[in-house]
Design brief:
The protein is of the alpha+beta class. It has 2 domains: 168 residues, Jelly Rolls; 104 residues, Arc Repressor Mutant, subunit A, CATH 1.10.10. Helix content is 45%, strand content 21%. The chain has 11 helices and 12 strands. The strands form 3 sheets. The chain has a 6-stranded antiparallel sheet with strand order 1-2-11-5-8-12. A hairpin with a 2-residue loop joins strand 6 and strand 7.
Length: 292
């Protein structure tokens, strides 16, 4: 079963691999989640959160002021973290592949007291943060879950202690915020994205998309990358793969049929791209969904 609090943090996402609350722990949970382009309204989260961005750059419009969105690019290997409370609305234009962690305020306070840290120290929001130690600890705890905690409870307890202490140290530092970026005018970007979403199964060309936008191919490619964090071909591939992933989740179509519908040259081409993106083949993913 997926964790309800991570569901709140990344509404509509799918868990990959094992996850859930860590054994013997007072409400800390780490899961790998994937989701395609999506929208999420404001949410209230009762837990502190930590996200490690993986895969490819993520382009998201995030609400900072009522009625106003700011465009951010989340680079692979960076972290986002924040305290329990209100989560602003987001409009994600590309897929997520993340390690998501939620930590209860009570657990944070208990460990802070044990380590003679101020339990009421404020956790600041950080977006686009690089911290190798925190990233490593998050990944190694998640890997222990995939290995069914083979190293034992004491090892896990020490890792969790170190993870939360690093979270307190990093979260209490001065906030970091990603800069906003430019690119295609919003109405043109919307038109291009809608065209790709509607015609992703066809043999779309760069010249065709550039003509639709009203730019030369080279200028269009540069502006599109600034807007989305990806080139047009990578964006199209992401849309195709997300369509296949959703169809596999429904279990109503075979891999060969989906390869043709989504515009891949062959089932083997789809399988290679799918494994590169999601870490499993389409057949393996379809089997995995039966147990989620």
């Amino acid at each position: 079963m997926q964790d309800a609090n991570i569901d709140t943090l990344i509404r509509g996402s799918v868990r990959i691999g094992h996850g859930g609350p860590l054994p013997g722990q007072e409400r800390i949970c780490i899961e790998r989640r994937v989701i395609g382009p999506h929208r999420r309204g404001e949410e209230t989260l009762a837990f502190n959160y930590l996200i490690l961005w993986q895969g490819k750059p993520v382009v998201v419009d995030r609400g900072y002021r009522k009625g106003r969105l700011t465009r951010l690019i989340k680079q692979p290997g960076t972290l986002s973290l924040g305290a329990a409370g209100l989560l602003p609305r987001v409009e994600a234009h590309t897929a997520y592949d993340v390690l998501a962690c939620i930590i209860s305020p009570g657990l944070l306070e208990r460990i802070a007291l044990e380590e003679d840290r101020r339990p009421n120290a404020r956790i600041h929001e950080h977006l686009g943060l690089k911290d190798d130690a925190l990233s490593y600890l998050l990944q190694i705890v998640h890997q222990q879950a995939q290995d069914n905690y083979s190293m034992g409870k004491l090892y896990l307890d020490c890792l969790v202690q170190a993870l939360i202490m690093r979270f307190i140290a990093v979260g209490g530092a001065r906030p970091t915020v990603l800069p906003s970026v430019g690119g295609l005018p919003p109405h043109i970007l919307k038109r291009i994205v809608e065209k790709i979403m509607a015609e992703f199964g066809t043999n779309l060309s760069l010249a065709e998309l550039a003509c639709e936008a009203g730019y030369s191919p080279s200028h269009f490619t540069k502006m599109f990358r600034l807007s989305t964090g990806q080139g047009p071909h990578a964006f199209l591939r992401e849309v195709r793969l997300e369509y296949v992933r959703k169809q596999l989740s429904k279990g109503q179509r075979g891999v060969a049929e989906l390869a043709g519908i989504a515009g891949f040259s062959s089932p083997s081409h789809l399988a290679a791209a799918f494994r590169q993106r999601f870490g499993v083949t389409p057949v393996e993913y379809k089997k995995l969904k039966r147990y989620l």
